[in-house]
Write a structure and sequence with these properties.
The chain has nine helices and ten strands. It is α/β, with parallel strands linked by helices and about 280 residues long. Helix content is about 30%, strand content about 15%. The two termini are about 15 Å apart.
């Protein structure tokens, strides 16, 4: 099976400075020319972006620029046509109430997805601190499973990976009963979204405040989830990665480049080739 080509969404121009994608087949979605996209996505921008990604499936790996554009996940998962779960690694909740009349934003896209997408049943959120999560609307918390930064700090890799394996298996129903074939129809796909601001500053440089997770810990956690999916015939509905540096600020690309390279290696070969490629 030929692998699906990674999609690079060029919102700011930052990927031109990086090297992880060079020498690989990639598809670029050019969007630097679209106004009204930085942190907030106005209706005109949302319509235009949706048009430019219309031919692409949510399956596959999507690089979506800095955390300022994490709301692009909302557009990708809106294309999923069946019930699914969402796993997010992020240093922030991204569940803030809208500040400007309900305009889609990087700080509120998870809340928007929970409110708007009937097919999104649960969110597993890994990384924000407990104080930030306390500010989340109580009505949303019923559909969120939360692992805080504070708990991550006192867990070892084995404990963190156990949490991911057990939680994902439970919410996605990735548990076979007597190996019956009909159980496979009940398995719910999982979409994975990674914001590299969950990482410590040694392993990434982003536009937002950062956590203290090491890249090795993140990669190990993702591998655990993918192994769990493989063992139980679960499906990964798609993946996106953000958390690049500000293209206009002074920054070092080496750490981000390396993190992107390692994450791409983990997800490589996970998806088959689409008809439109």
């Amino acid at each position: 099976m030929k692998k699906r080509t990674p999609v690079i969404m060029n919102m700011s121009g930052i990927y031109r400075e990086e090297k992880f994608w060079k020498g690989q087949e990639t598809v670029w979605v050019e969007a630097e020319d679209i106004t009204g996209t930085n942190c907030y996505c106005d209706e005109d921008a949302r319509t235009e972006i949706s048009c430019r990604i219309d031919k692409f499936s949510p399956e596959g790996v999507h690089f979506i620029d800095s955390g300022n554009y994490h709301y692009l996940t909302r557009l990708w998962i809106g294309k999923i046509q069946q019930p699914f779960r969402l796993l997010v690694f992020d240093n922030h909740t991204d569940m803030q109430p809208p500040a400007f009349g309900g305009i889609l934003s990087c700080g509120g896209w998870i809340a928007a997805a929970l409110e708007e997408l009937e097919n999104l049943k649960y969110v597993i959120l890994v990384g924000p601190d407990e104080a930030a999560y306390e500010q989340v609307d109580e009505n949303l918390k019923d559909r969120v499973i939360f692992l805080s930064r504070e708990k991550l700090q006192v867990m070892n890799d084995e404990e963190r990976n156990w949490f991911l394996r057990e939680t994902v298996s439970e919410v996605c129903n990735w548990r076979k009963s007597e190996g019956l074939q009909e159980d496979a129809e009940k398995f719910l796909p999982l979409y994975i979204s990674v914001d590299k601001d969950v990482l410590c500053t040694e392993d990434a440089q982003t536009t937002w405040s950062q956590g203290d997770m090491r890249l090795t810990t993140l990669v190990s956690g993702v591998q655990t989830v993918l192994e769990c999916a493989k063992e139980s015939s679960g499906k990964i509905a798609g993946v996106d990665i953000c958390g690049e540096a500000d293209a206009e600020a002074v920054h070092e690309d080496e750490a981000n480049d390396y993190a992107n390279e390692k994450l791409l290696e983990v997800f490589e070969g996970l998806f088959g080739k689409s008809d439109c490629e």
